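Holo prediction. Input below; ligand is 1-deoxynojirimycin.
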Amino acid sequence: MTHALLLENRTDTTATWWRQAAVYQIYPRSFADANGDGLGDIPGIVSRADYLRDLGIDAVWLSPFYPSALADGGYDVADYRDVDPRLGTLDDFDDMVAALHERGIRVIVDIVPNHSSDLHEWFQEALAAGRGSAARERYIFREGAGPGGSEPPTDWTAAFGGSAWERVEDGQWYLHSFAPEQPDLNWDHPEVREDFLTTLRFWSDRGVDGFRIDVAHMLTKDLTEPLPSKDELALIPQDGNHPLNDRDDVHEIYAEWRRVFNEYDPPRTAVAEAWVSTPERRARYASAEGLGQAFNFDLLVADFDAQQFRSIITDNLAQSDATGSSTTWVLSNHDVTRHATRYGLPPLEREGEKQGTAWVKAGGPADQLDREGGLRRAHAATLLLLGLPGSTYLYQGEELGLQEVAEIGPEQRQDPAFFRGADFDGLGRDGCRVPLPWTASGPSFGFGDTEAHLPQPSWFAEYAVEVEAADPSSTLSLYREALRLRRRLQTEERLEWIETGRADVLRFARPNGWQIVTNFGSEPFDLGADAADVVLGTVVDGAVPGDSTVWIAPAGLID
Ligand code: NOJ
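Structure of the complex:
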């Protein structure tokens, strides 16, 4: 294919292109709306292909764009091998892959294997076929408890709140780990396994370069009766034999997927979203015989704190040494409060474990929000991230410094977590999913030519792409410069810590002499003679100001 050839012009055409890639997450329904229906779409992405090229990213990851009733923002997939008609067609998808490949950008798509939509033909067939039918075997149907089976089989809670079981007309119940519109698939069923292999080949054949695997740790389950209660479940160790989470046998699936990925040249890549109990257990998902890479969300759940950052970085690099994979740094995505806002709020008092939940709370009360400080710290953290060995995932809008949108009325919200009572700051995840502002005016700030599907606040005008592109001191200009320099400075996947004599200042060097200094404190950190070699970030009187990062590159490293 022509576009595949054009991709060859890129610097990294090797099979390991993903190891240190900067990947930009697109939430398609909120990126750009080409057909004016208020929902972002695939032609919208094509229309912004030059923007993506100029940003300087290596790949995009698209959140689901498949046919969906949007019970969970598209993570309720009704057909795994098609495009939602509101978002375009398969031809549009091919055009998008071509447009991105021509610009040297790889394409990663989201696979949602734990559950389908209740509108998926298999689930509709299961409902129609009735209890005891073969069609029900593809999902997890059980008889209820109590008189006449009127109680759910167990007291398990779904991730979005409420019971994890929903009753159907004939009285049986089905398991849904998320919303009721997202029935869990039965991964013991050979047809389920086979069908996902077909899906992986379907998108790989269309030129997709990699996959992001939704809740990769949840697919296999041991539902041998009697089923444990919620309290009993909580006491079962997550050591590979837990009935619902991170079971060892899930890796049999990924070994099979790896064989499919390796049918392609270069092999297709995959990254697991796996919320598991320890870094060692996460490493299994990153194995070269499995998915190859796993998200590391440790910085995303950390405070803006030098010592937390240092130990997380050290641990994760040790993990990647052990697995042979590379790690993945993330500060924001479509599930969490934007990091510019998180860092503008007083640190959250967290109880117990930080892992095990995908959702990060915003912190203290909104009236204590320090937008300017939050953005400054967000810049500092992002520049640190982009200097680390491994790949970095950026979420659409963070390159504009967007803050979380709080101004969404209850009747305008879409996130099932908001309606079903899961505790996501009581606000759900819509605030980070508001359509991007491209221009300072217009019915949806250039997102499309009509009102956007989630309301955009008036302050979005200041953050519009056209405004920031014209301003050399904007967040967008900073991201563009950082990504441009990162390409030129990129080197082997190692770092060495340089002691700074300050607990609130981190400094490390990459093997080629590229250095990153982050001042997490408020007192300036003097750079001495190195101030002359700063290539990115601001130095004031030879020092790194508080809440800032600089990059240092000795003369000759960048010509
Ligand atoms: C994780 C996804 O990132 C999130 O958006 C979704 O709601 C759940 N998985 C369920 O698919």
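The radius of gyration is 23 Å. That is the main takeaway for now.
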